[in-house]
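Just scan my protein:

——
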Amino acid sequence: MAEEVLSQSEIDALLSALSAGEMNADELKKEDKAKKVKVYDFKRALRFSKDQIRSLSRIHENFARLLTTHFSAQLRTYVQISVASVDQIPYDEFIRSIPKMTILNVFEVPPLEGRMLIEVNPNIAYAMLDRILGGRGSSINKVDNLTEIETKVMSNMFERACENLHEAWESIADIDPVLTEFEVNPQFLQMVSPNETVVVISLNTTIGETSGMINICLPHVMLEPIIPKLSVHYWMQTSKKEPMPEEISIIEKRIRKAYLPIQAILGETTITVQEFLNLAVGDVIQLDQHIDQPLEIRIADHPKFIGQAGKKNQHLAIQIIDKIKGGGDDGE
């Protein structure tokens, strides 16, 4: 039940009434403890929780953004689509709420059972059609006598647009929408029983200077297999994918072939800027490393080993004599 929010003036009036004795605080407490009854309409069975409705809203907010991008590129004009509302109502009530003549696209969404319906307001549909055929995007309402060419162009347009459903739904289900019916009269379309609960997502749509609604109807029978995935727990949990042994082997082989720079540090020292500027050929810089001390060996600038300098086959060489502890995450 929705809670009533009091304004600051109402709160001040209530406090002054309590302090003046016009109202009794004990009576207010008794009213709060009284059992509150909420009217439940069995014809409007609420089969989805608020949490699940919010999840569907998030999915279709993403779908609305994808549609905006898609139609903007296809129509080359200003397009803005956003979620206006998400409600669960009986199917019969949804059919009675849309125009008597409108654009109805029925999709199958395998592997889910059942079908979904996308209803496009005729003003929006004709603005899109006019724009695709080279017009300025003006709208005329003559949906009752669509030509064969108009029907084909519209059905292809909405079929391509709803390919974005796959991307919007991929976090919940791997669906593959397929357009199966294109209708203009809602009375000739009976997807589910009249009392079946459906979720209706209404999208505010603006094409150029024309505005209207796109309604997406999702029957309960279609959403039933994935209802657990619509809970907040599913969205919050993080699934950690374990790498396959073959993947680990490939990564190890590639790492073993990687090249690493190796440096043997003969010694270090510091000089002033003035001494550096006065350096000339033949000058000697004394290092802080004694000739009998072992050298530090660095791998990719990280100190890893201790070694001693020498020669091997007439080449300068360095022999590793010990490891530097703490020289890596695992000491290797």
Summary: The radius of gyration is 36 Å.
